[in-house]
Write a structure and sequence with these properties.
Chain lengths: 168, 168
DNA sequence: ACTTGTGCCTATGAATTTCATAGCAACATG
DNA sequence: CATGTTGCTATGAAATTCATAGGCACAAGT
């Protein structure tokens, strides 16, 4: 696997180019989305991203090597690992949030409802799509907001989980 | 060119997945970076992203089809086009900004200096890396901040432009 | 008129990556 | 001791990417 562009030529001063050598990939971003949504096991991530096991395994390995993800054994005998965000991985949250806001605003889904709504824990009201809370104006961070999936989106995810189990 | 995943299966409710069908690609993001930096001509974009002409041509075509970019003739006879961001493309700016902040903070370049610094036009002071101005706390947007490239970064870009001219 | 240069790509073939499908190792559970 | 679960790895075929070359339409110089 020689896919990463992390060679010397990527010692560019541009932070966007540097970031893209790590996260400039659809699968990688979808994996991060799942980790932020609280999925931690390989097959959960695979089921929701709909990637092949190699795609997921390779990306998780890259993410671990790049320091965004850490593996932790949640069971020995049988030895099983779960995937968790490191501090560096958690710090990626604003990008996911910005991507979400853009997607919700500019790439309409056929059905209407917003997939996930956040409540701002400090003011207790809806946080909206921006970087600051639309209700109280204060800056949002991962720790001061709580997510709620729309019923439709929850059903979509459940359907994927079941479809995955069905053909294995 | 059958690369886009914009088939029916992407009618997911997840805005991140929908966004990634358009921008989930290293070259695409680098092209958007260049457009935000004020580059508009094909060869400028090619030189700074260091992509092959097909990569750039294909991505620009996708971006145009997705409505983020519009082509405008800046000369007829000979007919020449420049590439400009649409409103939908401009709206992607927060993602670029978040990516930049993460890259500057978490993927250190060998040399120290920050590539680009922004000044907040409203308070006249440095805007910092966050979504709100680090000096005055107000939310930042593309229209209320002005960029200044560091000397080193400017030199890096000039060197790329020259290297590109040299071997053509 | 004719050579050289510019801007924006397209063509070609080899190298690499991705996808679909299958399967395996290490257990747990009945 | 057969079947299920979890987390992957193996194998080729299909698609994409890369490096390299070139082409087309015109402008400018000589």
């Amino acid at each position: 696997m020689k896919m990463m562009k992390d060679n010397l030529s990527d010692q560019t001063l541009c932070p966007i180019a540097r970031a893209e050598t790590v996260v400039g990939d659809r699968w990688t971003v979808l994996i991060l989305r799942e980790l932020f949504m609280g999925m931690h096991r390989f097959e959960e991530i695979q089921a929701q991203t709909e990637g092949t096991p190699q795609m997921i395994a390779a990306r998780l390995k890259n993410l671990e090597a790049a320091g965004l993800v850490k593996r932790r054994a949640y069971s020995k005998r049988p030895l099983r690992y779960q995937y968790l965000l490191t501090e560096k991985g958690e710090a990626f949250h604003p990008v996911i949030l910005a991507l979400r806001a853009w997607g919700e605003t500019w790439i309409k889904s056929p059905r209407e409802a917003r997939a996930v709504n956040y409540t701002h824990l400090i003011c207790g009201k809806p946080a909206g799509l921006g970087p600051t809370c639309e209700s109280c104006g204060r800056p949002l961070s991962r720790t001061n907001m709580v997510a709620e999936q729309s019923p439709k989106y929850r059903r979509e995810r459940e359907a994927r989980a079941e479809a995955f189990k069905a053909n294995r």
